[in-house]
Write a structure and sequence with these properties.
The chain has about 80 residues and is α+β, with helices and mostly antiparallel strands. It contains 3 helices and 4 strands; from the N terminus they run E-H-E-H-E-H-E. A two-stranded antiparallel ribbon has the order 1-4. A two-stranded antiparallel sheet has the order 2-3.
Length: about 80
């Protein structure tokens, strides 16, 4: 864990104040406008409290679902 606000070492915090590109989550992939529509400027210590790194992860197990009758199927177009 790396604290970015309270308790952060000033030299580390200062180094991370430069704006960087951050990729948005949940965007629709459009290769022709990838950079313009999927990325934005982020200043890490301003936007986040902590940075947490995980060396290993694994996929989540989906929850069981049931079909809801009488409700139209909207995913992904009618959302």
């Amino acid at each position: 864990m790396l604290p970015l606000r309270r308790g952060a070492r000033p030299a580390v915090r200062d180094e991370l104040m430069a704006p960087r590109l951050e990729r948005a989550i949940g965007v629709v992939y459009r290769p022709d406008t990838e950079l313009q529509s999927h990325y934005f400027q982020a200043v890490l210590p301003v936007q986040f409290d902590e940075y947490v790194w995980f060396d290993e992860t694994s996929a989540v197990t989906p929850l069981a679902t049931t079909e809801t009758h009488g409700v139209p199927e909207t995913y992904p177009f009618g959302v």
